[in-house]
Amino acid sequence: MQFFRRIGYFLVASNLVVSFSGGFLAFGIARHFSLEHPLRYASILFLLIFAVYTLQRIVDQSGFSASEPSVWGNATAIPVVFSLVALLGAFILGISVFHFSPSLVFLSVFFSFLCYWYTVPFFGQKLREIPGIKIVVTAMTWSYGCVVFPLINEGIPLQETLLFSLLFFLYLTAIILPFDIRDVHIDDVHHSTVPQRIDIPLTKLLGTVLLIGFTAGNIGYRFIAVDNWIFHIAVALQLLFLLFTSEKRGYFFFGCIDLLMMLLGWSYLL
């Protein structure tokens, strides 16, 4: 049993679970919109999530709980090499599918800069240290990688792309909230995360409203069929995990929140 716990912890703490889940979600979205290279878009997101999350942890170790030690121990060379290889792979795949657009070049550079600024000081301050900005930047960056880049790159109408990305911004914000609840006493009080500002019960209520809005929007604008039970189960489980979130929950609990993105991605394949 201890062996399997170590394997589970490695998969979650090494960012492989969230990377694979995010990649599969991107795959489901790409297939839903009949994009030409869904597997490449999924691979790009998988590689970017792994690289960015791993490098952020190396650069900003103070932002993580001491109870969650790095799976790499004190070594940094191995994860840095893996991250750089992943970044290179994502760049090569991105070039292979990219249909040149000045707006996409600008947006990609902009969000790349946000990822850098998130943990590395710029103008003397990290982006995550600016009050109230942490969750917004994270959800926006994920929305860009999962939705905006592939859809605009493949010529999906701008209005449809923005509407769908807005719905996903609601979803992503909602599933990030449990992690802010977990870290409510780890995050610096000056960061003003949502649970720090409005307390945990209201944070859960906010997440509930966001998930309801996400569901209603998907059905109302016919991105999802009313009888798509996989979609409803995926959202309902995310809601349950949100409601049962506490600071005492372990890594497996939060790994399941990430894994549920795969179930949502599956629903978009139907």
UniProtKB/TrEMBL annotation:
Keywords: Membrane, Transmembrane, Transmembrane helix
Signal peptide coordinates: none
Keyword Repeat: no
Recorded superkingdom: Bacteria
TM regions (residue ranges): 7-29, 41-59, 71-98, 104-123, 135-156, 162-181, 202-223, 229-244, 251-269
Key word Transit peptide present: no
Protein name in the entry: Prenyltransferase
UniProt source species: Taishania pollutisoli
